[in-house]
Amino acid sequence: MTSINSAECISTGTTGDAVRAAMKAAGVSQADLAEELGVSQAAVSRRLAGSVEFSVAELRTAAAVTHTTPAALLADEQPPAVELINTADPQRDEALAESA
After folding, report:
1. Rounded to whole angstroms, what are the CA distances from 43 to 65, 78, 90?
2. Which residue has the higher pLDDT, 94 or 12?
């Protein structure tokens, strides 16, 4: 069984759902993915359910096995900083530009 260093883990908010959808599209079973990851089928199930995080290495392997990219498996996840950038305040930006 693979040990996971928490520093190498990523959030699984919707990652499990994305991996599950990619598995379905590629015809990959939990047992197939478990074999590729070197973990039990139960361990894959816990990751898909979100109770255990995918490590970065596991996500890369899952992407390769399902013929997609790690980025595609994370597409729905945006860190809060990205959301803040997307909510720019035009009036504030104009005032900052004028004061510079």
Report:
1. 17, 25, 47
2. 94
Task: Find the farthest-apart pair of alpha carbons in the chain and give their distance in angstroms, rounded.
Answer: 61
Distance between CA 18 and CA 1 in Å, rounded?
Answer: 23
Q: Token pair 């759902």 is at which residue?
A: 17
Q: DSSP letter for 54, please.
A: P
- Is residue 63 a contact partner of residue 33, using CB atoms and an 8 Å limit? no
Q: Look at the pTM and tell me if it is higher than 0.70.
A: no
Could you give the CA distance from residue 53 to residue 71 in angstroms, rounded to a whole number? 16
What domains, with CATH codes, occur in the chain?
Answer: 6-99 (1.10.260.40)
What is d(CA 97, CA 100) in angstroms, rounded to the nearest whole number?
Answer: 5
